[in-house]
What we know:
Elements: H1 30-52, H2 72-75, H3 83-114, H4 120-132, H5 135-149, H6 155-179, H7 183-191, H8 196-224, H9 228-233, H10 240-247, H11 255-283
Helix pairs in contact: 1-11, 3-6, 3-8, 3-10, 4-6, 6-8, 7-8, 8-11
Amino acid sequence: MSAVAAPARTPGELTxxxxxxxxxxxxxxxxxxxxxxxxxxxxxPIFVMILYSFNDVPLDRQNAHFWGFTTDWWKNILGIPGLxxxxxxxxRIAPISAAIATALGALFGLALGRYRFRGLRLVxxxxxxxxxxxxxxxxxxxxxxxxxxxxxxxxxxxILSHIGFSIAFVAVTVRARVQGLDRNLEDAAQDLFASxxxxxxxxxxxxxxxxxxxxxxxxxxxxxxxxxxxxxVAGPKTTFPLWVYGAQKIGFPPTVNVMGTILFTAGVMAAAxxxxxxxxxxxx
Length: 284
């Protein structure tokens, strides 16, 4: 076989210049390194808490020295007097307050995201005020209201208080979701002879379900770790944050780290379930 000769270049023809690839600068590492540093900074207290839940301290009070690895604190979670009751109270209050706040906040968010009415800006200001007001002001105001109304302080006042400050967070979350929905989907369902109630349950509710779940989890966490407002309205009852605050004055036991690790693990699992549910819904 004869080799194919390369085409001869005519005089004056320009040769293509080689492509100049941009040099990769060292500045491209700034943002990734900053992101990693912030993640480590934010997650380091959690890692320390998990590590010290296995700390084999010689006494039942936590200290900065890591004495060794043990699982005794995990085997005797409720062995500290008062800790088990406080933890049960928190787990009893948080689901109830989160469920009621989600129901009320979802209706509030639907109204704000769907309708335009006179006084909407005032309502927006009130919602922002409910989120931005210092907790010590809200706690003292709720305490004054309960005392003037003659309501005995206890679990009921804690639940009512947690519902009150959680509604605004749920409403904002649901409102953001509603404003991004396509109203034509509901109109199409009603064109297919679906009643407004059926269109809501078949179309609107599945679309805002991720916002409802996010609002419930947010209200649950806010209720579970609230201290300032609960300290005002708890009366003789004690929740987990109140117990930890009282115990840290003399050194809290490692069992507190165990409780915190359990709550953190439950939160991570709930977030993972939420993400998986959203991915499965989007793939359908």
